Amino acid sequence: MNRQRVAVIGLGPIGNRHADLYKEMDGAELVCVCDIDRERADASAARLGVKAYYSVPEMLSHAELTMVSVATGGVEYGSDHHEPTMQALGAGMHVLCEKPISNEIDKAEEMVALAREKNRCFGIDLNHRFTPAARLAKKWVDEGRIGHQLFMNMSMWIMNPRESSPWFQIKALHPHTVDIMRHFCGDIEAVQCFATKAPGRKIWSTAQFNMRFTSGAVGHLSGSYDIERGHPMERCEVAGVNGRFVIDDMWREATLFPAGDPVKTVYTNPVFGGYRDFVDTFRCRLSTFVTQLNDGASPEEIDGSGADGLAAQKVLAAAIESIKGECVVKVER
Ligand SMILES: NC(=O)c1ccc[n+]([C@@H]2O[C@H](COP(=O)([O-])OP(=O)(O)OC[C@H]3O[C@@H](n4cnc5c(N)ncnc54)[C@H](O)[C@@H]3O)[C@@H](O)[C@H]2O)c1
């Protein structure tokens, strides 16, 4: 059986989560961890029983690896993804990188281009599409149960009080929602966005987006870094001429409403064997990448690819231009 030899780069809460998940995975062996912060690297290495490195080039020249997980962060949660991703792809590794692919479009372009040049698999942790409910809804779309698509409504909100760049919420939260929108309804060609600042905040912490898909369908997205926990966090609705589906909270429930038929199909997350919490979205996303690699998938076949991560950031860049100019903006292709 093929087995990926994995390193995790960046050992904050999310990198440690990645490392824990590789450690428990049959199809992967966690070989080492790497952080420029020696204390973080040493603490994770000791906890996980693997070697610590403090520099990505040094790790790549010494450790025998087949893939790396990049869980660095930085400005807008994305400025530190480019360097280790380029180094790892350059050394022939497959890479799974946290979202956003990068906070800068030209850097994200370089990452996707290098993965292509090196013929390496490059995935982004777009974990919200990796749930049984989302997979079922995708099957409904593919089977024609929705039919010609008309509209989509998407929303996601959490509390994130961090004050950084004005565009933090848009660039760092909405890779997830825009990916879900593209996943079900295809490319987005135009965007209009209004945003607001919650009391005491300096950043555009809540936003509403209108989208037009290349298919002609129209979409709407609400998002916020201002909503305390306790409410449902995510909702996705897609309507077409043959039916409509709603996914509540990523994995909790998916409902298909067939057109002209009062009998609904409802999937509810089962108590036994169902998703327990948000960590399961990471578990499924990471293990899907590893399984695809072990099964010899081609870079184009990667579910939640670097190209998907880049396309989402381009939609978000257009939304930012829309806020600045108070106008509708075409998405750069
Ligand atoms: N997919 C999700 O649902 C989800 C949820 C939360 C956060 N995230 C993402 O996870 C990422 C990490 O978040 P976090 O809170 O763990 O970040 P963090 O800032 O706590 O940790 C990042 C670590 O990366 C290290 N680092 C930076 N550059 C490095 C380099 N070149 N080589 C080695 N180490 C380097 C830093 O020293 C730091 O320890 C972010 O990009 C964030 O957007 C994803």
Mean pLDDT across residues: 97
- CA-based gyration radius: 20 Å
Count of β-strands: 15
Roughly what fraction of the amino acids lie in strands? 25-35%
- Tell me the structural class: alpha/beta
Overall geometry comes to: globular
What oligomeric state is this?
A: single chain
Distance between the termini: 39 Å
> What profile does the largest beta sheet have?
9 strands, mixed
Q: Which strand order does the major sheet show?
A: 14-13-12-11-7-10-9-8-15
Helix content: 25-40%
Walkthrough of the structure:
Helix content is 35%, strand content 26%. With 333 residues, it is of the alpha/beta class. Helix 1 crosses helix 8 and helix 4 packs parallel to helix 5. The model has no long low-confidence stretch (mean pLDDT 97). Bound molecules: nicotinamide-adenine-dinucleotide. The site of nicotinamide-adenine-dinucleotide has 26 residues, from helix 1 and helix 4.
